[in-house]
Amino acid sequence: xxxxxxxxxxxxxxxxxxxxxxxxxxxxxxxxxxxxxxxxxxxxxxxxxxxxxxxxxxxxxxxxxxxxxxxxxxxxxxxxxxxxxxxxxxxxxxxxxxxxxxxxxxxxxxxxxxxxxxxxxxxxxxxxxxxxxxxxxxxxxxxxxxxxxxxxxxxxxxxxxxxxxxxxxxxxxxxxxxxxxxxxxxxxxxxxxxxxxxxxxxxxxxxxxxxxxxxxxxxxxxxxxxxxxxxxxxxxxxxxxxxxxxxxxxxxxxxxxxxxxxxxxxxxxxxxxxxxxxxxxxxxxxxxxxxxxxxxxxxxxxxxxxxxxxxxxxxxxxxxxxxxxxxxxxxxxxxxxxxxxxxxxxxxxxxxxxxxxxxxxxxxxxxxxxxxxxxxxxxxxxxxxxxxxxxxxxxxxxxxxxxxxxxxxxxxxxxxxxxxxxxxxxxxxxxxxxxxxxxxxxxxxxxxxxxxxxxxxxxxxxxxxxxxxxxxxxxxxxxxxxxxxxxxxxxxxxxxxxxxxxxxxxxxxxxxxxxxxxxxxxxxxxxxxxxxxxxxxxxxxxxxxxxxxxxxxxxxxxxxxxxxxxxxxxxxxxxxxxxxxxxxxxxxxxxxxxxxxxxxxxxxxxxxxxxxxxxxxxxxxxxxxxxxxxxxxxxxxxxxxxxxxxxxxxxxxxxxxxxxxxxxxxxxxxxxxxxxxxxxxxxxxxxxxxxxxxxxxxxxxxxxxxxxxxxxxxxxxxxxxxxxxxxxxxxxxxxxxxxxxxxx
Length: 744
Known about the structure:
Layout: H1 17-26, E1 33-35, E2 42-44, H2 56-72, H3 74-83, H4 85-88, H5 107-126, H6 145-151, H7 154-159, H8 165-175, H9 182-200, H10 214-236, H11 252-272, H12 276-293, H13 297-313, H14 316-331, H15 334-351, H16 361-375, H17 379-403, H18 406-410, H19 415-433, H20 443-456, H21 463-480, H22 487-491, H23 497-500, H24 521-524, H25 527-547, H26 554-557, H27 559-571, H28 575-599, H29 609-622, H30 625-646, H31 648-652, H32 689-704, H33 711-727
Antiparallel strand pairs: 1-2
């Protein structure tokens, strides 16, 4: 038989991955040829033969290989997904499922197949390393510069997980819609998490999105801070002023997971940020998100812990914002959070009130007032804390009275103890004045502790601490309308031996007890110490008696006070002190006469407490002489203190002047020599004005002998003296800086 040559389709062979590429090139230009079953003749047809797909096992293996590529080299995977997406979805022919019938081959066909196989082998040997990697098709197009600038599709960017400003604008538009979708909210929270992962430096973090550049980072934060909270409210269908808890809404379960992760990230960001401006923005945003924090108790405790640190240690604006966040979170979770918050805030208050200075005093006052407001949220719960902490103060005082050791005294005579007394005085005064009797039983223990502190060491060294305690008790008496006998503690200062001694040092700057608890022995010898004591005595007497000036028993109350002041004025040699105390005495006497005249018109008995109270209210509304004088005294005293506080730095620059004489100098000024033979640099306050004028005349005589070369320095000294006179007109002694007789 004569064999006819028949063109048959090449039988699929088991080829490796290396040879599949070459075989596709060989078969690229050939048309599939189908052989008829009846005639067994080759039939050329342009229709492609449908190929069988891989089995499920091979598909799964192929999918696992692709996932492995995605994990090993995600950038190359995204490149293939963007530019040659068909490569990832191709179907290979099965080697076992498709089998055609074997046909007799011609010699020419066998030669062609052998040549093709040799070409495949040669190509495999030449490209052993290159065939392992994918070769992109030659028809790939390169994107132009215009497309890079703004014509790329947003969906492609989202698929590549790279966040751009265009995507952020798109999300912002979707979040601003009336019906916000949960998908956009989740994307925004995931982008926030990815942005934090870029700056955290955590190598284990696997952010879903890629945030590159400071502009995109700021855009993500701005998107979440400004638009996330309104979008969540729109999604849940809750209005801003609604009191419905968020966790009780129908759609809460859908948004709960992404909000939880977002609040955790927000708390972590607040803990790590140190810039005050950024913290202000984040705290305002946290205040908006506080209704959502309530639904997560574990997150709420972490947030409150960080907020309490900011409340006690940051600057003024951050303190206020942190306190508002604490108040809003705690108020909605009083049963679970109030005990924890009160304890933590009180410990922070005590810890940060250890040192008092003009710089720290405003922050301590703010903490005290804000803490009073927190305790006032629930007085029943507050009673347990206040009772415990007042009891601790009593234990420290008892140990100091019994042991009488230095350590026990120091546990009482410190700023933490005094600031704790101030805190409880403000709290008890606020609660009792608001007709809330829960804390009223603690008034007497607090008064007993404070008076015990005054009596513990009644020396002149601790006069500042005494004045602080007396002022606190006066405040408590005014707020609670409870009579507390404080006049003996005030007048006792005037009878002190240390106070009545003549001063031996002239101080150049005024002394203030606002931020002082204890005085040193050199300070006790200064004239500024006596001036400040007299100021405090007059101020406390006026404050206490002005409160009692409308009392029916005022004339009887001030009998001992008038007697003590008259006795002291007889022995007082300082005209300035005598003038101040005499003014106070005169106003006390005038007020006593005023009350006696009003008391003559009384027709009710002393048993009618309600009538007595109404009479006192009428007298107070009418105005008493002592109360009117106290109002004017407070205004002038505040102006003086502000002036002194504003010029504290200038006053501190002045050093105590000293006189340096030449070794051979024998002539001395008569007025500069004291009775004991020592040189007196400054006259005391007890000396007459004539002596001061004579001292100034001596200085003028010395100024005439100054050489012309020293005129510039002389002008500087005179200008400084004039400035000081303008600042402190009440000073009797001019402040002289760097006075040296060698210059004359």
